[in-house]
């Protein structure tokens, strides 16, 4: 008997297209009960939360815009955004991207998938795109839901910005939308880190939790008195930098740097994940993707990226040290006070004055002058002075400040009572919240100083 | 007569680090054949099947599948499908959803037969809309086979496809695979159980420590000249015992594993086939009735054990 090769000769099978692989991955993802539950939660829970909190007398004043939740519906989505950046988005990226590759290890389906798709690259792209899609659906759900909850429960009203100026509802809506779009960049960075962990650590729980752990570490780093260059070189800064959209003019410098850094981390982590994925041997049954070397291959380049980014930002931006300086703080408070003073004047039916007429000046000290007037801390004390047209005397008020290391501060009025010492003001229509009593502000860490 | 070859491997070597998984393997599988791969754990069966599926490439040697030389990973020709290390299924999907997702993945251009048809062929029609999470191992194996059948395979590669199947399920799958081969498809499957291979395969390859220790027709393996142990039960065990001692080429084996117990009169005799014939003739001549005479292990299994143990000891 003679053997011959089978005829006709079979052509090599073509890989499955990315579009089909993407649909396949989406079907798998959306068939999981935890993903369905997350989608449902993200599209419903924020609306309920914002609506419920907005109706309470005790508001989350320690959260940015929390004090305005019962004044305008546009504060709710911003409170939700602050919460999402700290907790929800890292956890969502963990559950979705952190499990994208590990799920195949857990189910023992890698070989089946490879035989069906016949391309490492297309499997990777399809998985990454499917994860991205689900994450976008979840983020969109939180944004839309919290906005609907706020606007329905409180109303489409003007929002007080972080420098005290009033944003018209349409302007506030646009900035809220832009703020949510901006946090997509750090969310993508965490998702890419999730993909890397999922590829490098296989079915190990460490892979699943990596984005959450990294986000927590970065959030902790943001609370430390680190130099501005280090702070901005971390992708997590973009979770905070959207604050700058709510000042006039907008503080876009740190925001753009944060977004750029986040996208850079996204690209590098994704490429690393792809390279680690390509190096894997799927016929070796004893290998499930976890390995010290794979982790090293993923971690070291990211540490290198952080070092390079810190160097570039330090060399190319004007701010040094903490970025919180006396001049910038004084200017920020003077601006916010002038805007808020006009609001108070309107409440009290007093004649309108312009910011220029008020000519507000601020003098701040730190630690009663015993320490250098720079850096974060709750020992800042500022004296605000202003003039009224036709009045010879100079008005004066005191604020105690708690300045956080990310530039955000809370100014707490310390008198006189008629100006900023009490939480309410008596108006012809009854008692109303006093806008000068407590307010949030934001020091732009990168701005060059100019006396204000 | 020319027989088309579906698989031709020459000198295939594959290492994982310092571990030599396959050592200069040669393999020929004719088209339309059901070819069995058998060997102890770690013999290299799954690695070889993985190479046939294109999951990896050999470090050395050449591999031709359906007439195409395979030189890189994931480059197996069209028509090659199957599974190694268990069928790849998604537990959150139903059986039908698993198959339809797979069919959609392969696109409209792929040769997908009807999903209902393959579910019927593997006997899973009744549970088609149940989630795979609740399936037994045997049902998963059947669904894995259904997934492979979706594309109308020309070479079907199956790793331990009968694991977890009950006898009826096995018989059902025997029928499916036999019909597939009769239609011209080639099947390469691995199994630990010689009875599965005996029921299905015309040719087998025995692997041990990464090397081929036998390849050829099953009949050839079972008729090789080799002493086997036989269980013998007679009407007069003591007389039979004396007869065995007197006749040449027969040895009594005291094998508790074979169930030899003096009180039941069961004996285990080790002999070549001619000597066993002489014993039966002698028992009949002395008016001793033979109530049971059967090999303790099948000839195939005995051959397998002898070959693999010999290879592992060298």
List keywords for this structure.
heterodimer; A: 452 residues; alpha+beta; 5-stranded antiparallel sheet; 15 helices; 10 strands; B: 314 residues; alpha/beta; Alpha-Beta Plaits; 4-stranded antiparallel sheet; 14 strands; 34% helix
Describe this structure in a few short sentences:
Chain A is of the alpha+beta class and 452 residues long. Helices cover 54% and strands 12% of the residues of chain A. Chain A folds into two domains: 18-316, no CATH class; 326-442.
The CATH C-level name of the largest domain in chain B is Alpha Beta
Determine the oligomeric state from the structure. heterodimer
User: What's the end-to-end separation of chain A, in Å?
Assistant: 99 Å
Q: Would you tell me the structural class of the helices and strands of chain A? A: alpha+beta
- How many distinct beta strands of chain A? 10
Number of domains of chain B: 2
Q: State the helicity of chain A in percent bands.
A: 40-55%
User: Taking strands numbered 1, 2, ... along the chain, how are they ordered across the largest sheet of chain A?
Assistant: 4-5-6-7-10
Largest sheet strand order of chain B: 6-7-8-3-9-10
Please give the number of β-strands of chain B. 14
Most strands sheet of chain A? 5 strands, antiparallel
- CATH topology name of the largest domain in chain B: Rossmann fold
Assign the CATH superfamily of the largest domain in chain B.
Answer: P-loop containing nucleotide triphosphate hydrolases
Please summarize the sheet with the most strands of chain B. Answer: 6 strands, mixed
The CATH architecture of the largest domain in chain B is 3-Layer(aba) Sandwich
